Amino acid sequence: MSTVVEVVDRMPATSTLSEGGDEKPKKRKDKDEIKKEKWFCGCCKCASYESEEAYLYAFDFDHTIVDQNSDTAVMEVIHDPVPSNLTRLFDGTNWEEYMEGVFKFVAEEGGTYEIIADKIRQLQATEGIPHLLHKIVMARRSLHHGSKLIIVSDANSFFIDTFLSNLKPPVTPDLVITNQADKTEEGFLKLTPFETQTECTFCPRNLCKGTALLKYIGKKGPFQRVYYTGDGGNDICPATKLTEMDVVFVRKNFAMDKILKHGSWKGQQLNIKAKIVFWEVGKEIEREMIF
C-alpha cells in the first residue's frame, strides 16, 4: 500500500466546520430521518444503509487504531535503554526531533528498518477497530462515493502504512496526515515534520491537527457529518473545530477523556459543540455512525 501524505496549507473553513465564528451550521437530517435502503456489507453481512450523503471518517493512530504508542513500541526491539544525552533532547514540544534521534540509536544497536517494520506489524489493534475500518471502506466503495476515510496522526507515514497494509484485507485511507518517515542509506528512519507551527498551543510544533482537518474539509467537503475518533491531548484541537452536526469519539480513561472532564486545556476553557461519545471498543463507535 502506498501511503498518501499531504502537506496542508491553512485556509478558512467551509460552512461544515467553524473556527470560532457564530455562523449557525446548516440543519441536517438526524440518523433516523435519513431515507435509507438496507444493504449488507460483504465482510460481515451486517446491515447498513444507502444514502447520497458524504461523510468524513477521521481517525487518530496511536492508542486509537493501535492499542499502544507505536513510537515507544519500537524501542522494544533493542535491549539497551535510550541514553540520557538523547532523552535530555526532548523538551516537551519536539517529539519528532527526539524520535529521529531514537531511531538512529535503535539502528546503531542493530534495530534495522526491517526489524522495526516487523515490530509495527505485530502491534495489537484496538478491539473492533479493524472491523470498523473495513466496514467504512466497504461502504465508501459501495455507496458513498463522496465519503472519505483519513488518518490524522502525530506518528509517521512508515508506521501507519506498514500497520494498515498488514490488516486482512489491507486498509487504504484516502489520505494520511502525518510526519513523513523515509529510510536513509545508513538504514535508519529519518523523520520530516508535517509542518512547523507556533499558532496553535493545543498541538505540538510539528502538526496542528485542527488546521489540517479544516483544510481537508475545505478541499474535499462539504460533508454531511464529520466523525473524529481519538484519545490524546492533541485530539482536543480538531474536536474544537467541529460543529453540532458532527461527532467526536473519545476513548475512555485516556488523556482526551481526562482533559474534557477537567473542562480546560493548557489554560483555556474548552468549547466543543460536537456530540461527544465515549468508547472503549470499536463496536461502540460503529453504533453511532452512518455508513
Describe the global form: globular
Strand content: 15-25%
For the report, how would you describe the main beta sheet?
A: 7 strands, mixed
Q: Which oligomeric state applies?
A: single chain
Keywords: Hydrolase, Magnesium, Metal-binding
Family: Belongs to the HAD-like hydrolase superfamily. PHOSPHO family.
GO molecular function: metal ion binding; phosphatase activity
Protein name: Putative phosphatase phospho1
In brief, what are we looking at here?
The protein has 291 residues and is α/β, with parallel strands linked by helices. Helices cover 30% and strands 18% of the residues.
Describe this structure in words.
The protein has 291 residues and is α/β, with parallel strands linked by helices. It has a single domain, classed as Rossmann fold (3-Layer(aba) Sandwich), CATH 3.40.50.1000. It is 30% helix and 18% strand. The protein has ten helices and eleven strands. It has helices at residues 70-74, 84-87, 95-108, 113-121, 129-142, 157-165, 209-220, 236-241, 255-262, 282-286; strands at residues 38-40, 47-49, 55-59, 148-156, 175-183, 189-192, 225-230, 247-251, 264-265, 268-269, 275-279. A seven-stranded mixed beta sheet has the order 6-5-4-3-7-8-11, sandwiched between helices. It is globular and about 50 Å long. Substrate binds at residues 71, 154. Belongs to the HAD-like hydrolase superfamily. PHOSPHO family. Mg(2+) binds at residues 60, 62, 231.
